[in-house]
């Protein structure tokens, strides 16, 4: 019996429940592996890549260049989103998830094997950038497939909860990345960390990708895509259709994510780690202590992200977001006053408080995005909106924050930048409608096209 069957025997109901649970587990595992790989790079960029790959530029410029390599990958996320969106709307969600996972794992492992500038000169940063670009292509294609597998398998009344499953893979990925680096810092202290300690978390990606591949291969295709394929209604040029009819929606959805992503990349992009541990900076805190503080904050980010999905099934996606924007704005203002005390416990408190807003403006994203776009262009719509939002938000947030702090000599300018991005996310949210519970099947395209914007009927 197909997972999409409208009538089910008691045995079929059990099978359907088991299949949904398997899909939920697969999306969590897969996104965790993807974002572990992605964040291990960003953390290493804030901690060691400036010295290892860009040292001849001098400490300040080396830091900026290191963060620029984090941002460059975002410019290639749309390419991954376009490719995965096109083929995901034509051949299915499942194959694209496997392809993106393998691409990310290979790129990450190769980074762990790269010689440094001191060994092969200018070739080292060039190879580093090329591998980071491949990570960006993979990340751009990953998210849309994962969230659609989760949401399109979910019961209508629990889409927020199921959609939160791939979302929590992001904080879990950060947790694992930070914890691995913190452990390596203990095992390989001082120069040993620069020599070998930072490489092991990258090489460990091979194990994680093997697990993720096995889990993802075990799940069924999305029932929505199966129905599209059965009707032979795959769109020949889904991206063209998307921008012809839904360009304003893509822009607004991207701005929603940008407001969250810019703030989130203060830790996921390695900025706080670099700012707090830089021996030439104002704090000079212990690297291991800061990594553990980020790890603890990741646990709270996970909790609030999951909670947001659950809450959104009860009060709506839009309302959950609005509450999240308010909290995010408040705790953006308190972040640097706590960090700048130089007390590791207060730094950790600042990061933990920030996760409340970050979680509430991220946990409901999968279900809301999925309910905003019609079935025939849904993979393309959610993937491209996410990719554009990541460029506008997180891509160069660590670089911008570093440049602002260096230019003004104060983190007040960074706070104003993050507060401005939060307001942009709030405004975009207010211009969209909540569509909780809308029919996601391909036969309901007319319903899916109506009532998207706050001003529409």
Q: What would you say this structure looks like, in words?
A:
By secondary structure, the protein is mainly alpha-helical. It has one domain (20-449): Up-down Bundle (Growth Hormone, Chain: A), CATH 1.20.1250. The protein has 21 helices and no strands. The protein has helices spanning 10-53, 59-75, 77-90, 93-112, 117-120, 123-153, 159-187, 191-197, 199-203, 205-217, 223-231, 238-264, 271-277, 287-315, 317-339, 344-360, 365-372, 378-395, 397-408, 412-430, 445-449. Helix 1 (10-53) runs parallel beside helix 4 (93-112). The longest helix is centred in the N-terminal third of the chain and has 44 residues, at 10-53. The radius of gyration is 21 Å and the shape is globular. The two termini are 39 Å apart.
Strand-helix topology:
Blueprint: H1 10-53, H2 59-75, H3 77-90, H4 93-112, H5 117-120, H6 123-153, H7 159-187, H8 191-197, H9 199-203, H10 205-217, H11 223-231, H12 238-264, H13 271-277, H14 287-315, H15 317-339, H16 344-360, H17 365-372, H18 378-395, H19 397-408, H20 412-430, H21 445-449
Helix pairs in contact: 1-2, 1-4, 1-6, 1-7, 1-10, 2-6, 2-18, 2-19, 3-4, 3-6, 3-18, 4-6, 4-10, 6-7, 6-18, 7-14, 7-17, 12-18, 12-20, 14-15, 14-16, 15-16, 15-20, 17-18, 19-20
Protein name: MFS transporter
Main location: membrane
Subcellular location: Cell membrane
The CATH architecture classification is Up-down Bundle
Give the percentage of residues in beta strands.
under 5%
Instruction: Provide the CATH superfamily.
Output: MFS general substrate transporter like domains
The tally of domains stands at: 1
Number of helices: 21
Q: Spans of 5+ residues with little confidence (pLDDT < 50)?
A: 1-16
Helical proportion, percent range: over 70%
* CATH class category label: Mainly Alpha
The description of the largest β-sheet is: none
CATH T-level topology = Growth Hormone, Chain: A
Number of strands: 0
Shape: globular
| SS class | mainly alpha
Q: What letter string, H or E per element, gives the SSE order?
A: HHHHHHHHHHHHHHHHHHHHH
Mean pLDDT level = 86
The radius of gyration computed from the alpha-carbon positions, rounded to a whole number of angstroms, is 21 Å
Q: Termini distance?
A: 39 Å
């Amino acid at each position: 019996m197909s997972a999409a069957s409208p009538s089910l025997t008691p045995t079929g109901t059990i099978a359907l429940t088991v299949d949904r649970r398997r899909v939920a587990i697969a999306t969590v595992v897969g996104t965790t592996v993807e974002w572990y790989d992605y964040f291990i790079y960003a953390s290493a960029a804030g901690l060691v890549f400036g010295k290892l790959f860009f040292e001849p530029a001098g400490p300040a410029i080396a830091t900026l260049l290191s963060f620029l390599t984090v941002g460059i990958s975002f410019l290639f996320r749309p390419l991954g989103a376009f490719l995965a969106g096109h083929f995901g709307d034509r051949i299915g969600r499942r194959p694209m998830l496997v392809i993106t996972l393998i691409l990310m794992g290979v790129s990450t492992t190769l980074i762990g094997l790269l010689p440094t500038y001191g060994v092969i000169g200018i070739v080292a940063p060039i190879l580093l950038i090329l591998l980071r670009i491949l990570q960006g292509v993979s990340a751009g294609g990953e998210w849309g497939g994962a969230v659609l597998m989760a949401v399109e398998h979910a019961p209508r009344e629990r889409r927020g909860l199921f959609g939160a499953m791939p979302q929590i893979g992001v904080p879990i990925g950060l947790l694992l990345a930070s914890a691995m680096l913190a452990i390596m810092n203990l095992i390989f202290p001082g120069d040993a960390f620069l020599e070998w300690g930072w490489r092991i978390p990258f090489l460990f990606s091979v194990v994680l990708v093997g697990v993720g591949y096995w889990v993802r291969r075990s799940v069924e295709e999305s029932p929505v895509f199966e129905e599209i394929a059965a009707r032979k209604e795959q769109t020949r040029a889904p991206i063209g259709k998307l921008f012809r009819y839904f360009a304003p929606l893509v822009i607004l959805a991207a701005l929603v994510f940008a407001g969250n992503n810019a703030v989130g990349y203060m830790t996921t992009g390695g900025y706080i780690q670099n700012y707090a541990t830089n021996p030439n900076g104002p704090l000079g805190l212990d690297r291991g202590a800061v990594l553990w503080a980020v790890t603890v904050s990741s646990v709270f980010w996970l909790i609030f992200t999951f909670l947001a999905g659950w809450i959104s099934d009860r009060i709506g996606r839009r309302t959950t977001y609005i509450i999240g924007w308010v909290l995010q704005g408040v705790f953006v203002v308190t972040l640097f006053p706590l960090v700048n005390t130089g007390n590791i416990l207060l730094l950790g408190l600042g990061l933990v408080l920030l996760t409340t807003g970050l979680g509430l403006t991220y946990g409901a994203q999968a279900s809301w995005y999925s309910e905003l776009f019609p079935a025939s262009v849904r993979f393309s719509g959610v993937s491209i909106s996410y990719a554009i939002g990541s460029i506008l938000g997180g891509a160069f947030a660590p670089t911008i924050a570093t440049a602002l702090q260096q230019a003004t000599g104060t983190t007040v300018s960074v706070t104003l930048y993050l507060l401005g991005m939060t307001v942009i996310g709030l405004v975009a949210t207010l211009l969209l409608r909540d569509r909780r519970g809308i029919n996601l099947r391909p036969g309901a395209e007319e319903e899916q096209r109506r009532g998207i914007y706050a001003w529409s009927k």
